[in-house]
Amino acid sequence: MNSLVKTFAAAALITVSTFAMAAETSVSKTEKANINLSTAGFALEHYVAVTTEGESAGVEQLFATDFNQKIQASNTQNHSRNGVVKSLKKQKGEKLNCVVSTDILEEAVDYRIAKVTLKFENFTKTDLVTLERVGNEWKVSKSINSYK
């Protein structure tokens, strides 16, 4: 009788913990889907987190459908939205070892141009980012990178 009570108690404990983990998982998925991009500042902040801190939540939501990225180096490269999103998702959790600074270069009602500077030990990456208001959200529509 005593072992039967222990069996039922263990089964109840497993059931409760399974439901608790399932509830926790559904909440975190909901949180990831709701990134606040209501201001250009929030969108720029999230862009920096995605590109430098390995944040992967809301990557698809952050970039405009016509987003493109240009990297100016010894051989100029162009990347589409899909390619950049896929690359950033692979970098989930990877933090860059650099000092980040941001400056707003141009500001209007429906767009911003920001300069994001990443200072690494041996080089500096400059990212000119264009943000546009799309409906009620701000999206990153263009990125031009250069290295020194």
Mean pLDDT: 81
Q: Tell the overall outline.
A: globular
The helicity comes to 25-40%
Q: Strand portion, in percent? A: 35-45%
Radius of gyration: 21 Å
N to C succession of SSEs: HHHEEHEEEE
Describe the sheet with the most strands. 6 strands, mixed
Query: What is the first-to-last residue Cα distance?
Result: 76 Å
Unreliable spans are 8-13, 20-32
Query: How are the strands of the biggest sheet laid out side by side?
Result: 2-1-6-5-4-3
Outline:
The chain is an alpha+beta fold and 148 residues long. Helix content is 40%, strand content 36%.
Folded structure, characterized:
- This protein has 148 residues and is an alpha+beta fold.
- It contains 4 helices and 6 strands; from the N terminus they run H-H-H-E-E-H-E-E-E-E.
- It has helices spanning 2-33, 40-52, 59-62, 81-90, and strands at residues 63-72, 77-80, 99-107, 111-119, 124-134, 137-147.
- The protein has a 6-stranded mixed beta sheet with strand order 2-1-6-5-4-3.
- Mean pLDDT is 81; it is low at 8-13 and 20-32.
